[in-house]
User: What shape does this take?
Amino acid sequence: MRPYNFSPGPAVLPEPVLERIRHELMDWNGTGCSVMEVSHRGKDFMAFATRTEATLRSLLAVPDNYKVLFMQGGASGQFAIVPLNLLGDKSVADYVNTGQWSNKAIGEAQRYCTVNLAAEDSIGVPAFESWRLSADAAYLHYTPNETIGGVEYHWIPESGDVPLVGDFSSSILSRPLDVSRFGVIYAGAQKNIGPAGITLVLVRDDLLDNARPETPGAFSYKQQAAADSMSNTPPVFAWYVAGLVFEWIVEQGGLAAMENCNQRKADVLYAAIDESGFYSNPVRPDSRSRMNVPFTLADPSLDSEFLAGSVNAGLLNLKGHRIVGGMRASLYNAMPEEGVLALVEFMREFERKFG
Ligand SMILES: *Cc1c(COP(=O)(O)O)cnc(C)c1O
Assistant: This one.
C-alpha cells in the first residue's frame, strides 16, 4: 500500500488517475505517442480539451456567460494578471487579508493600483459587516481558503456591482460553488486539480474588455479566451491530468459527494484535535478549513518525534509551514477517508505515549 500524503501542494492525486496515466503513457489515445509529444492543436488533444472543459462546466455548473481558461504562471501569476485584466481605467481595488496568500496577492496588486484593505484577520474570517469597501473599486479580491493558516470562508461575500474575485487554489472543486456570484475565479492546479504548471481561470465574459493596455498577450484573458487557452503552447501534460481528475470527480458522484466526504474527513480530524487536550488548532471554529488543518502539539519539543513517527506509520508531509510551525494535514479531494482515520489513530497513540 502507498503511504498517505498530506502535502499542502503539490499534493496527492487520486490513485486511479495515476494508474490511468501509467497505462496511457506510451500510447495516448491510439496516437502511438505520449500525450506530452502530440500537438496541442492536433485533433486528439483538441477533442480532449473540449471534453475537459465540458466536464468542468458540468461539475461546477458554470453559466454560459463565463469563459473557462487554462493559463500558466500559477496562482501567483494571477496575483498580477487579475489587476492587469480587471483594472481598466480604475485605480483602486478592494482586498481582504486573511493570511499569507491574501498578503501576497495584495503585494502584487500594489504594483498596479491602490489597494484598499477592506478587512483583515488571520485566525478567522472577518465578519462581512466590518468590511470597509470602496465605492470606486475595480473589483473585490479575497482568499476563500488560506492554505497556510487553515482559514476558510463558509460563505460568499456580497460585492454588489463590483466584480468579486476569489483565489480558490486550495479549495476549488471541494464542494459545489455558485459561480454566478463571481467575476473571476482562479486556482493553481497543484492542490485539488492536478500537477503544477496549469491554472484554472473562470471569467465572466463582460469583464474581458477591462484589461490595461500593457497586459502581456499570454496573460490576457481576452486573448486566451479567443484562442481556446492556446494563444501560446499550453502545458499539455498538466492539462491532460486535470482532465482525468475532473472525470474522476464525476465518477465519485460530483461536487456534492466531494463535499460530504471532505466534511466527514475534516470533522473527524478537528474532533480528535479538540477532544485531545494535547493538540490544538488556532482557528476560530466558524472559519476552520476543511482542506488544510494546522495543529500544534502541547510540547513543541516533541515535533520531530511526531514527524518521524508519522512517516514510519505511512503518513507523509505533516510538517507545518515554517512560519506557523507545528503540523498541517491537507485533506484535499484525493485524500481518502481511511488516510484521515489512520492519522487520527496515530495521533491518539502518540498522545498516549508522550502526552
Ligand atoms: C498554493 C497557493 C498559491 C500559490 O500557487 P502557485 O501556483 O505556487 O503560484 C496561491 N494561493 C493559494 C490560496 C494557494 O494555496
User: Anything to note?
Assistant: The pocket of pyridoxal-5'-phosphate is lined by residues 9, 74-76, 101, 143, 147, 167, 169-170, 188, 191 (CB under 6 Å). The longest strand covers residues 114-120. The longest helix spans residues 254-276.
